[in-house]
Amino acid sequence: MKHLLIALMLLVSGAAFAQTPSIEIKEDGLKNETEVTLVDAKGNSVSNAFGAKQQNAYMWSGNVVKGQARYFSSTSNGVESARNWDLALRYERELSGIWSAYLGQGLESDAFAGFDRRYNTDIGGRYTIKKTPELGWIAEAGYRYTDQHNADGSILDSNFGRLYTEGVYTVSESSSVKLGLEYLPNFSHAEAYLMNGEFSLNAALNALLSLKVAYLLKYNNQPPAPATQYLDRLLTTSLVAKF
Question: Is 24's pLDDT higher than 60?
Answer without folding.
Answer: yes
